[in-house]
Structure formats: C-alpha cells, structure tokens
Design goal:
Layout (H helix, E strand, L loop, with lengths): L4 E7 L3 H12 L6 E7 L4 H10 L5 E4 L5 H12 L4 E6 L3 E2 L3 H5 L8 E13 L6 E8 L20 E4 H6 L10 H12 L3 E15 L11 H14 L5 H13 L10
Parallel strand pairs: 1-2, 1-4, 2-3, 6-9
Antiparallel strand pairs: 4-8, 5-9, 6-7, 6-8
Helix pairs in contact: 1-2
C-alpha cells in the first residue's frame, strides 16, 4: 500500500546534518509517509547514514553527477509513491508533530499548502551544531502573489499533491533560486490555489555567516538569475513590474520595466 506522503530529502556530503534531518522524520508522531533520499554523490559517509536511518520501505537514490539540488529533487519526486509530497533539505528538519497536524488538511487536492515555520540560526563550528537563536515566521502576513517579485516560502514548508510536483519539475539551469522559480511555475501553471495553513512545523536551519545560496555570493550570478526568472515569467501587472525593477536596481542591474 502506498503511503499518504512522500518526503523527498536531498543531500550533498553533509552526513552530520543529514542524520539530524532524517532523525526528525523518524521522530514524527504520524508515520504514514515514505522517505525518498536522493544524493548527488556516493560517499561512504552518506551511505552509512542512509543505512542507519532509512526504514525498509524508504528509498535511497545515489546518482553521482547530477546538477545540484534541482535535479536531485526532480529525480526524487519522480520516484515518490505517495499521494502528497514535500521536500526537506539535509540541513533542515521537521518538529515531531508537524506531519500529524498537517495531515488534517490533506483532503484538499485543489490546493498547494504552505505552513508557518521556525527560522533557527546555528553555529556549525563544533562537532554538533549549536543553536544560537530562533524565531517564528508567520507566512500569512505576505500574499502569495509576492512570489512574482521575490521568495518568502521555504521549499520545506510546502505540501502539495504528488502528481502536481511530478508535472512541474525544478529548472536545473539556474545557479541559484531554483526553489523560488519552481514556486512561480506552480503559481502560474498548476491551477491550484496556494493556501496558507496557520500551523508551524518546518524548521529552517541557517548556518551563522553562511549563505544558503552559495553561488549567490557572486553578485552578478545572483542578479542574472533574478533577471532570468523575471523574464521567464513576465507580468502584465505594472506594480509587480515596478517592484521587480527596484529589486534588480538594488542588485546593480538596470532594466526597463516593460521587459519585466
């Protein structure tokens, strides 16, 4: 019998963090889910964590040479067997009652659900991460249309029908922000409503002093990916075009709003 939820976990040479992510899934009070772990490398350390933490019906996909998290997520989603699907990066986690609480909302197959989350800053200089501070993020304060300007929804705070996830793959050509572009593609093409659910559960872990989009430390790569996303998904709304122009200007790129 297929599970209700598939959780696609992607990882790249971070066994210590991967172990924490997988442990947060094993501790869920709701267990009608499968883990689909996809790695773009075949290191012994990653395989060791997979062997220790994955259950009999979970999937482990080692695909060396794929092009980063976007392609890993696409491969994992393609193998998922659940009715619903969510993603979890190897450095993030779920609170123990997240799936139990979220499962009450899974009758609405006409919606893409997104949840509130906790942002946790930590130091990774020690053998184990050390929590520095955390804050609760209420996502109801931002309308989902803001996605056409910038991202505010972490990929691990979403639950959506698996068939929709399979039909809308991540763009593997982007160096950064492939998760944001994916949300825009869902918003624009899936015909499903983005529905905010007022409960928390996902935890986004941020390493103090590090960027989650490492290539974005190069300002031009960052700016060009923003421009590429805007041009892939042009808007007829003058307010959105103006806001996009301001974002690009802040990144050092001047573009006519008519092109956005």
């Amino acid at each position: 019998m297929n599970p209700l939820i598939s959780i696609v976990v992607t990882t790249h040479r971070r066994p210590r963090l991967l172990e924490r992510a997988l442990e947060s899934l094993l501790q869920q009070t709701f267990q009608d889910f499968e883990i689909v772990l996809c790695t773009d490398e075949g290191s012994y350390e990653t395989r060791q964590v997979a062997a220790a933490k994955l259950r009999e019906n979970d999937l482990f996909l080692s695909v060396p040479g794929v092009r980063g998290p976007a392609q890993s997520r696409n491969i994992g989603a393609g193998m998922a067997r659940g009715q619903w699907l969510c993603f979890l990066d190897d450095d993030d986690s779920f609170e123990p009652d997240y799936l139990a609480n979220a499962s009450a909302y899974l009758g609405d197959h006409g919606a893409i659900l997104y949840f509130d989350f906790t942002r946790l800053s930590e130091s990774r200089d020690q053998a184990l991460p050390v929590e520095l501070r955390r804050e609760f993020v209420d996502q109801s304060k931002t309308a989902s249309d803001y996605l056409f300007i910038g991202n505010f929804i972490p990929v691990n705070s979403l639950l959506l029908p698996a068939a929709t996830a399979k039909a809308f793959p991540f763009d593997t050509r982007l160096a950064t922000h492939e998760d944001w572009e994916w949300l825009i593609s869902l918003k624009s093409g899936s015909r499903l409503n983005f529905r905010h659910v007022p409960l928390r559960g996902p935890v986004v872990h941020l390493a103090e002093g590090e960027s989650r989009n490492n290539p974005a430390d190069k300002a031009m790569v960052y700016a060009l990916d923003f421009l590429s996303i805007y041009r892939k998904w042009p808007s007829s709304d003058s307010q959105i075009r103006s806001a996009r122009g301001r974002v690009l200007a802040s990144l050092g790129v001047g573009v006519s709003e008519d092109l956005l």
